[in-house]
Design a protein that fits this description.
Number of helices: 14
CATH architecture of the largest domain: Alpha-Beta Horseshoe
Oligomer: single chain
CATH superfamily of the largest domain: tm_1862 like domain
Structural class: alpha/beta
Distance between the termini: 37 Å
Number of domains: 3
Helix content: 25-40%
Bound molecules: 5'-deoxyadenosine, iron/sulfur cluster
Shape: globular
CATH class of the largest domain: Alpha Beta
Length: 463
């Protein structure tokens, strides 16, 4: 996924233009916004045109294959723009941020010496200082340390508004060390933001218009930020505190680990109606030997039990997950067990990936690497099943009247669009005045990735 994040914020003169290219997860999208926030006081305002930019940031993701090649290919194009700018008497500062920067900082500077700044995800708050140094220096600045101080403490309070649906990072990093995963090496150890800071940012986002907040973290349900009493809190408690903010109608959190799905958080799904009935809970595999090889530290039965308890707490809960096929050692029988788990649980949607060896992770050096063609075949089989389940789930919504948070205009004239509680994109023919409201609509038709709806009679009369 590639998104260009444009974030407006108050600027000082002289105006400078910032272009950010973001790959990867919602955490990276959030980080891009925060990098734009810390640069706003230096006069940087967003531009959609890299050729026009005084600074370009590539915010990179390393989690699966070919990440570094994509970055180097983008850098090749930017080198030409940077040269053209220099020939015209200007200067473009080029920064590589995110997980590829963390994992391959030295390599980036060796292969792309025209890069000015390389910074890891823990050091965004130091960006203004790095930009100042890069503006003065000819040599590149590299900062991929895991500093002892907390990056969350240094981010500015004045974040750019995110709109009706906002993201809020509450936790970073991971100590789980799954066999296949680079995150513990690129994002470092788990760090939780204090409860008071999270609540303050949530209130600010709501004051700026947010009505739905998604709490983010690589291991979000492992959040243990300091609570009001000075002791570590839990995500269940945080959700309850957030639900006290009057205008915050919807709360979500992602991504969770089954091991951190504690009783209190499960109870919050029953007790807090504003906690949306959609949960992304990666299981990766339906086979116990593979889960053990992955160092997931839970069994298939544990996962099954967690889902049962969540569904007992919130019967309309839709479950999403991540799967990896072809982890080293995965046999045909192991894969069949994954298919069986998928059939048994029934997923509203899911992401599935072919295992790709990440250098430096334990699985990369494991025996029993699975043949590429076999991985392809397994992935196709799993994805066909998951697609059928998603289609069935979407069809099951037809005829229901559900609250939709309308967030903007639809693709076609006269349409407005929003989100169902289960994260579907929903579009409807209706007035633009619906935007910013949560309105009950009747689902008329289901598509692979969206739903269409109509206004019930009485709302139509009001509109
Ligand atoms: N190979 C394939 N998929 C991976 N993921 C993480 N690392 C790898 C890898 N080396 C997937 C996992 C994780 C999701 C974010 O990306 O399913 O949950
Ligand atoms: Fe990676 Fe596992 Fe941590 Fe998720 S829990 S970020 S898969 S190490």
């Amino acid at each position: 996924m590639e998104t260009t994040v444009l974030t407006g914020a108050p600027t000082i003169t002289p105006p400078r233009r910032l272009h950010v290219i973001t790959w990867g997860c919602q955490m990276n999208v959030y980080d891009s916004g925060r990098m734009a926030d810390v640069l706003a006081p230096l006069g940087y305002a967003p531009t959609a045109d890299a050729g026009d930019a005084d600074m370009v940031i590539l915010n990179t993701c390393h989690i699966r294959d070919r990440a570094a090649e994509k970055v180097f290919s983008e850098l090749g194009k930017l080198r030409l723009l940077k040269q053209a700018r220099a020939e015209a008497g200007g200067r473009m500062i080029l920064a590589v941020a995110g997980c590829v920067a963390q994992a391959e900082g030295a390599e980036i500077l060796a292969r792309a010496p025209f890069v000015d700044i390389v910074l890891g995800p823990q050091t965004y708050h130091r960006l203004p200082e790095m930009v100042a140094r890069a503006s003065r220096a000819a040599g590149a600045v590299i900062d991929t340390e895991f500093p002892a101080d907390d990056k969350f403490d240094h981010l500015p309070d004045e974040a750019a508004p995110q709109g009706l649906t906002a993201f809020l990072t509450i936790q970073e990093g991971c100590d789980k060390f799954c066999s296949f995963c680079v995150v513990p090496y690129t994002r470092g150890a788990e760090q939780s933001r204090a409860e008071a800071a999270v609540l303050a940012e949530a209130r600010r986002l709501v004051a700026q218009g947010a009505r739905e907040i998604t709490l983010l973290g690589q291991n979000v349900n492992g959040w243990h930020g300091t609570g009001a009493d000075g002791a570590p809190s839990t995500l269940g408690r945080l959700v309850r505190r957030l639900a006290e903010i009057p205008e915050l109608w919807r709360i979500r959190y992602t991504t969770s680990h089954p091991r951190d799905m504690d009783d209190d958080l499960i109870a919050a799904h029953a007790e807090v109606p504003r906690l949306m009935p959609f949960l992304h809970l990666p299981v990766q595999s339906g086979s116990d030997p593979v889960l053990a090889a992955m160092n997931r530290r839970h069994s298939v039965a544990d996962f099954r039990r967690i889902i049962e308890r969540l569904r007992a707490a919130r019967p309309d809960l839709a479950v999403s997950s991540d799967f990896i096929v072809g982890h080293p050692g995965e046999t045909r029988a192991d894969f069949a067990a994954t298919l069986a788990l998928v059939r048994e649980v029934g997923f509203a949607q899911a992401f599935s990936f072919k295992y790709s060896a990440r250098p430096g992770t334990p699985a990369a050096a494991s025996p029993g690497q699975v043949d590429e063609a076999e991985k392809d075949a397994r992935l196709q089989e799993l994805q066909a099943l998951l697609r059928d389940q998603q289609a069935a789930f979407n069809r099951s919504c037809v005829g229901l009247t559900v609250p939709v948070l309308f967030t903007g205009l639809g693709r076609h004239p006269g349409q407005v669009a929003g989100r169902s509680p289960w994260l579907h994109a929903v579009h409807i023919s209706g007035p633009a005045s619906l935007i910013g409201t949560e309105t009950r609509v009747k689902i008329e038709a289901a598509f692979p990735n969206s739903l269409s709806a109509s206004l019930p009679e009485q709302e139509r009369a009001c509109a």
